[in-house]
Amino acid sequence: MYQPGDETSDSGLLLQYILQNVENIRQQLKLVKRRLPQDVAITKCNLSMNTLLNLKRTAEALNKVMSVLFYATRQCLTLVTLDPETETSVPHDKLWEILSNGCEKVYEQDDLGPSQNVRTVLSAASTDMGQLAQYLLDHEYEIISATNTAKPEEKPVAPIIVRAQAVKKQLEETKTLTATLENREAEIRQLKLAAKLKQNELSEMQIRKDLAEKKLSVLQQDHETNTTRLQKQYDEVCAKLKQKEKEFEETMDHLQSDIDSLESEKSSLRDKLKSFSSRKVDLKTTTALDISASSPYIAQELSLLKR
How crowded is residue 124: how many other Cβ atoms within 10 Å of its Cβ? Predict the structure, then answer.
């Protein structure tokens, strides 16, 4: 974890101390585990209450050290992953800073620094495990004797009792099977009832479906009838429309012919009016000349009237 050349630094010395003591504690725990009884007779080891409390405190202290080391390992792995230049090592200053931060998080106000915290706990744990292993070694035969004494001797059981127990067990199993069978029958009855209800519901839905289909058929027939009637009305209206169009065209033709005849009559009347006007002027002139010739006074009056 640390870089080459940092073996004599604070972090390097602390890591070496951790490795040595952890290995020592592991070996002592193997000895303890080998000599401890593997059943409830472990209480026959005659360990004092103070020893048990001391072991409990040691376990709690080791748990804190493990928390610090876990925090440091996680931070170092993060640094190694994020910065490829560090390869598989972390500088001494950074490693010591990580250990210090871990101690602050775990020990809080009881923090004495990485070296003091870890060394004190590992030293105490190594001493306690050594004393426990030595105690178990010194009292090995006493513990074995107490363990053997603690085991109750098995008394022989009469065959009739064994048979009675077997019959009793069979009766209990029979009762259990009977109860299970009754439960299954009750479930079957409930399922049959549910199936009957579903069948009734299905029949009702079928009746509704038939009624809906019948209603749909009636509506389709009405629709077809209405469609036929409307188509017939449409055809009649189209025929009437064509007839009206034909009559309209004929009427327009008659009107156009009437207009043409009226135009011709108008032209002829206009010509007649022109000819009549010219004749009237000639008649007036002739009459005036006749009157002036016969009576000069009348001619004078006529001239005054014209003015």
Answer: 15
